[in-house]
Design goal:
- The chain is built from 25 helices and 24 strands.
- It is an alpha+beta fold and 844 residues long.
- It has five domains: 138 residues, HIV Type 1 Reverse Transcriptase, Chain A, domain 1; 167 residues, Alpha-Beta Plaits; 75 residues, no CATH class; 172 residues, 2-Layer Sandwich (Nucleotidyltransferase, domain 5), CATH 3.30.420; 146 residues, no CATH class.
- The strands form eight sheets. A six-stranded mixed β-sheet has the order 18-17-16-19-20-21. A three-stranded antiparallel β-sheet has the order 2-7-6, with helices on one face. Strands 8-5-12 form a three-stranded antiparallel β-sheet, with helices on one face.
- Helix 13 packs antiparallel against helix 14.
- The chain is extended, with a radius of gyration of 37 Å.
């Protein structure tokens, strides 16, 4: 029995059952199914009430068209939480369930040749005058020139069999190339689930849909003992319905196919910055892949037309997505990744990398036809091949959803154009219209939508930090001024978000990572200058990450190193192996640490340095910390015109050359040498504490501790006299008490000298400098001379002294990074005394 209370069989062969008979097991399973049915009925009643139907609200029934938007919103809320998702079985797949794909012959043998001078349009096959007018509507605007538009219509007419405008024209992958799918399942008991009732407002429309699918050969009669649920959802147009089969019981006994489609962000990256793009959508894609007859009974469901079963791949079955994605990828494998990258049933087409711009601002055209630009003709040729391959395999694309050539297309939630990619207008509009959040669920929903724009906004996480704080476990929800301000600022940033483009590899222009951080977050962005016009910047990505409480307490040098490590590790996929990389940051401490591997004060920092040196190769550009950060995106910045050269090894040895340093402003001071700040990197590794011949607070605490210990000794002695212990036990208790009391009375025992031999030379040098620092702080002048007018040794001394503070009573303290705590500095001749007292009296 799983977490949801359902019974399932974990073996593929029958085994002996000691606890249940077959009839008992079936009865138990059906009982659990009935419980699930009752829960589903409650959910359905809530849905009907939201949709405004007779059963739910007892109001007058309205037409579907009048309730389109309300029902779309209602359906949109019914996505299944991850916690309720049914997981398939992970196991070895028997050979008989192996998926076969084998396209024979040459799909391009009959490829029509694209004309340079296209003829006037003439209807051909499925492509009629009416459909031509609708296609022109899909390609509205003046992006396509008249001759290019004629070429587009010629291409669609010539490849008309690759398109379908209704169910009667829908194709099907040829069985000789794609044998029907056999659903792999483990041993199980058939399920019988009561179907959802069809609301009266959509009853007629649903019946028409079912009848069309019967006529198209998608459904066929069934008399099996299985019964699954099904329901309808609203399509993107807000009116049309789509039937979805709820095959949770089947998913629970299916052997999983672990394939995945490509990540959406990565997919959109490949279509940004292209001269033009196109997009094709398979016509009801799953209906184009046949299901084996031996598996069709598993999909049986009850309808007004009786029991039916699916003939094609079920929408709602756990393995449908990876199987169909692999089918489309197999058909177009020779066009991937140069010209397309399918995403399940969507086939976007990549245009050329450039529009072949001329010096006068025009575009290169065909020699035989100046009315067709070169990049459009190349794109049409690529589209022609893709259509031919799909037609040869038996598949069809949806005619009403086809975009052959456009300046901008929408892919997986991103608008991709020649300028780059950015979230769609619909996505941004939803975020901008979002109101105040009433609970943690609302906050998570808002952040889940806004995070789509994360890579287009500088310091996203830092801005959204108050909202992320509300999502933490154990934090009570309170929507106040700070949270409202964070939401509004995020909305404004999203409204103004940048287009981003792909990095160009290879390129004479380096990829630049600009890294900055605050006390609680690391922010960075990537950009690359245009090869033709270096003053033009193409932004690649923005990102930010929150530091945890421990990282926020790091010293300044350590925090600078960890922020670089975090940024490089986050972009490991993009930057690893890049030989033309520049890291733009305040390198005051970084330069010394990166060029001195193995000399850091602890193993953790050494590992960070080793990780950076081993995995990345870059030039370090030093920029002053003030005024630097991802918020100044619109500012054009000077970039050195020098060509940087560096010999790289394979990364396996850490004996390579030092990192190259470039300063943005030659007048800026050089980064500090490691020796000047090595003791500041990790202040936990030593105890540099000074000055204080007497410590009244510590002495009082030690005296109080001694008094408690003496009282415990007296109580043990008294216990030994009044209890009936054996004589040997009494002697032992008394002896231990005498020894403890003698140790407390030995206040003047000789102390071991403070061991200077094991300390570093820089630590001993700093100890020797402490009296001078205290003396300088006591007589510190109010008006200091500018640092650039001081000698190098004086400037070094003042920088060291700035890390200390002298109290009014003459105590010397050391500042620790951004922490509010100060470290008391103790002279070396008092350190062993304090350590001994702390160990003996407070450590045990």
């Amino acid at each position: 029995m799983n977490k949801q209370g359902r019974v399932y069989i974990t073996e593929t062969l029958p085994v002996k059952v000691d606890k249940f008979t077959k009839d008992e097991l079936k009865a138990l399973y059906l009982t659990r199914s009935e419980v699930t049915n009752r829960k589903d009925e409650v959910l359905l009643q809530a849905f009907i009430q939201e949709a405004g139907t007779v059963e739910g609200s007892r109001k007058k029934t309205k037409a579907l068209e009048e309730h389109g938007e309300e029902m779309a919103l209602s359906f949109a809320k019914k996505y299944k939480p991850v916690s309720l998702k049914v997981r398939p079985v992970l196991g070895e797949l028997p050979e008989k369930f192996r998926i076969i794909r084998n396209i024979k012959g040459n799909p391009l043998a009959t490829l029509p040749e694209l004309p340079i001078k296209p003829p006037e349009f003439r209807p051909k096959g499925r492509y009629t005058d009416d459909r031509k007018e609708k296609m022109d509507t899909r390609h509205e605007g003046d992006f396509l020139l008249p001759e290019e538009r004629k070429l587009m219509h010629w291409l669609i007419a010539e490849q008309n069999e690759a398109f379908a405008w209704d169910d009667s024209e829908r194709g099907s992958f040829k069985a000789e190339y794609f044998p029907p799918i056999d659903i792999p399942t483990v041993a199980h008991i058939p399920w019988v689930l009561k179907p959802f009732r069809i609301p009266p407002s959509i009853y007629d429309e649903v019946c028409k849909m079912i009848r069309r699918k019967i006529d198209a050969g998608v459904y066929e009669p069934s008399n099996s003992s299985y019964r699954s649920k099904w329901f309808c959802v609203i399509k993107k147009d807000g009116k049309s319905l789509r039937i979805v089969h709820s095959l949770e019981p089947l998913n629970e006994v299916t052997i999983a196919h672990s394939g995945l489609p490509p990540a959406t962000e990565e997919l959109a990256m490949h279509f940004a910055g292209r001269a033009c793009n196109g997009i094709l959508d398979l016509y009801v894609g799953y209906d184009e892949r046949l299901l084996a007859e031996s598996s069709r009974d598993l999909t049986t469901f009850q309808t007004p037309f009786g029991a039916l079963r699916l003939v094609t791949l079920p929408m709602g079955w756990t393995n449908s997505v990876p199987i169909f994605h692999d089918d489309v990828t197999y058909i177009l494998r020779d066009e991937i990744p140069e010209y397309t990258m399918p995403y399940i049933d969507d086939v976007p087409i990549r245009g050329p990398k450039t529009r072949y711009e001329q010096k006068d601002g025009s575009y290169e055209v065909l020699k035989g036809n100046p009315g067709i630009r070169r990049f459009v003709y190349e794109h049409m040729n690529n589209t022609n091949r893709i259509l031919q391959r799909m037609k040869y395999s038996g598949g069809t694309f949806s005619g009403p959803k086809t975009t052959i050539c456009a300046d901008k297309i929408t892919i997986v939630g991103f608008d991709c154009s020649y300028e780059g990619r950015r979230p769609t207008t619909d996505t941004i509009g939803k975020i901008l219209n979002w109101g105040d959040c009433e609970n943690t669920t609302d906050v998570r929903a808002f952040l889940g939508t806004a995070v789509m724009c994360r890579n287009h906004i500088a310091k996203f996480v830092a801005i959204a930090a108050p909202l992320y704080e509300l999502c933490k476990a154990g934090v009570s929800f309170q929507w106040g001024v700070v949270e409202k301000a964070a939401q509004e600022e995020l909305k404004q940033k999203i409204k103004e978000c940048f287009h981003t483009r792909n990095p160009k590899f290879p390129s004479k222009q380096p990829i630049v990572m600009a890294v900055d951080s605050s006390w609680r977050a690391v922010g960075y962005y990537l950009y690359q200058r245009d090869e033709e016009d270096p003053t033009k910047i193409h932004y690649i990505k923005f990102n930010s990450m929150l530091m945890d409480d421990r990282q926020q307490r790091y010293s300044q040098p350590k925090r600078e190193l960890v922020r670089l490590r975090m940024a490089l590790e986050e972009e490991n996929y993009l930057l690893r192996g890049c030989r033309n990389l520049v890291v733009e940051t305040d390198a005051k401490y970084l330069y010394g640490m990166l060029n001195n591997p193995g000399r850091m004060p602890n193993a953790t920092v050494n590992r960070w340095v080793d990780y950076i040196r081993t995995n990345f190769f870059f030039i370090l550009m030093h920029r002053k910390g003030k005024g630097f950060g991802p918020d100044g995106l619109s500012r054009r910045r000077a970039y050195p015109g020098d060509k940087f050269a560096r010999n790289f090894d394979d990364g396996s040895d850490d004996e390579g050359e030092e990192f190259v340093l470039v300063k943005e402003n030659p007048e800026d001071e050089d980064p500090l040498p490691l020796e000047e700040f090595i003791d500041e990197i990790d202040t936990r590794t030593g105890f540099l504490q000074q000055v204080v011949k007497d410590s009244p607070e510590l002495q009082l605490e030690l005296e109080a501790t001694k008094a408690v210990v003496r009282q415990e000794i007296r109580e043990r002695r008294l216990l030994a006299t009044i209890q009936d212990y054996p004589e040997s036990v009494k002697v032992f208790i008394t002896t231990v008490a005498d020894q403890e009391e003698a140790a407390l009375d030995s206040e003047d025992l000789p102390e071991a000298p403070y061991d200077e031999g094991r300390r570093t030379a820089s630590a001993r040098e700093q100890d020797a400098r402490l009296p001078k620092i205290k003396d300088w702080l006591e007589r510190k002048p109010k008006n200091l001379v500018a640092e650039k007018e001081l000698s190098q040794s004086d400037a070094k001394f003042i920088r060291a002294a700035s890390h200390f503070w002298l109290s009014k009573d003459g105590r010397l303290y050391r500042k620790t990074g951004n922490s509010s705590y100060l470290q008391l500095v103790v002279e070396s001749d008092r350190r062993m005394t304090i350590m001994k007292e702390c160990h003996d009296n407070t450590g045990h």
